[in-house]
Specification:
Blueprint lengths: L2 E7 L6 H8 L5 H9 L3 E3 L2 E2 L12 E7 L15 E4 L3 E6 L16 H8 L24 E7 L2 H12 L4 E9 L6 E5 L2 E3 L7 E3 L7 E9 L3 E8 L6 H8 L24 E9 L6 E5 L4 H9 L4
Helix pairs in contact: 1-2
């Protein structure tokens, strides 16, 4: 992808995202925060991934602004498995293999295209025109429960609840190897890998990340887990399980050289969601059955 490289020199001490947004017109501060976390900004030749990094007078800053993707979002009549819907939000059961929103190489047939059609354009636009209604996301090959919002007021309310850990999300995953403990917690900061920018990894300067897991069943080839996220970092489950030596089965990024057992992508399913609806004050809880690909994998594994 072509990018526009902009060079700046810090004039005083300031947050990195604040300084960049004050010098480059036409973009929001949150846009630059995203570029920083994506590893698109360097300070004195070194990649900085924290938006709150404090600049020092004279720092040489380079910003790579990617060429814009096609923002002509098409509403596409793609069937959705809707678990719940009201005037504020919609909860769907996303199939494995469906991209959440347009990006490089995926300009249509995404969940966002389907939501535009189903909701007739009534979606929040806080995250921009190519991510209408998207308040959180799951990876293309991760299946299961995902929520979208229909207006900016609800977007801000749900985002705030997520930041306060008031939305419970439970996942199921099968990982390589036998985990001896019946349950455990992985408390390790996650940041973008310096060796492979597609990957996230445990790093001292990463963002605080906490994952709780409980063993559902053990097999000779792996372990079936229930996982609860205390935080919601990019690739959190995939990175944390790799960190403890038990990457997710079928993961094309973190376990590319391992036997896939016929999987088309990582065996990771967003099982359920629970929260108090900001508008009604009522509890919202939805749980999905394990998808066929998950059940078929369990049938292929050998119980201990």
């Amino acid at each position: 992808m072509v990018s526009d490289r902009i060079r700046l020199k810090a004039e005083d001490t300031s947050r990195l995202d604040v300084f960049i947004s004050s010098k480059i017109d036409g973009y929001t501060r949150s846009y630059f925060t995203g570029l920083i976390s994506d590893g698109k900004v360097t300070v004195n030749g070194k990649t900085v991934t924290k938006a709150g990094y404090k600049t020092v007078k004279g720092d040489e800053i380079e910003v790579d602004i990617p060429e814009p993707v096609n923002t002509e979002m098409k509403a596409q009549d793609i069937p959705l498995d809707i678990l719940y819907e009201d005037d504020d939000l919609i909860i769907i059961n996303k199939p494995q293999g469906m991209v959440v929103h347009p990006g490089a190489g995926h300009y249509d047939d995404t969940l966002a295209n389907a939501l535009l059609a189903h909701c007739e354009g009534n979606l929040s636009d806080i995250n921009g025109v190519i991510r209408p209604g998207i308040v959180h996301r799951i990876d293309k090959d991760t299946s299961g429960v995902m929520m979208a919002v229909k207006n900016n007021e609800m977007h801000l309310l749900i985002s705030d609840m997520m930041s306060r850990h008031e939305i419970e999300r439970i996942y199921r995953t099968v990982v390589y190897g036998v985990i001896p403990e019946n349950e455990g917690t992985i408390d390790a900061p996650i940041g973008r890998s310096a060796k492979d920018r597609r990957k996230m990894t445990v790093a001292e300067d990463g963002k605080p990340s906490v994952t709780h897991f409980k063993v559902v069943n053990r097999y000779r080839e792996g372990t079936d887990l229930e996982v609860i996220l205390e935080t919601g970092r990019t690739h959190q489950i995939r990175a944390h399980m790799t960190y403890i030596g038990h990457p997710v089965m079928g993961d094309p990024l973190y376990a590319s050289r391992r036997h896939t057992f016929g999987l088309a992508g990582q065996c990771l399913h967003s099982k359920s969601i629970r929260f108090i609806h900001p508008r009604t004050g009522q509890e919202v809880y939805f749980e999905t059955e394990l998808p066929d690909y998950y059940k078929e994998l369990l049938d292929r594994l050998s119980p201990l």
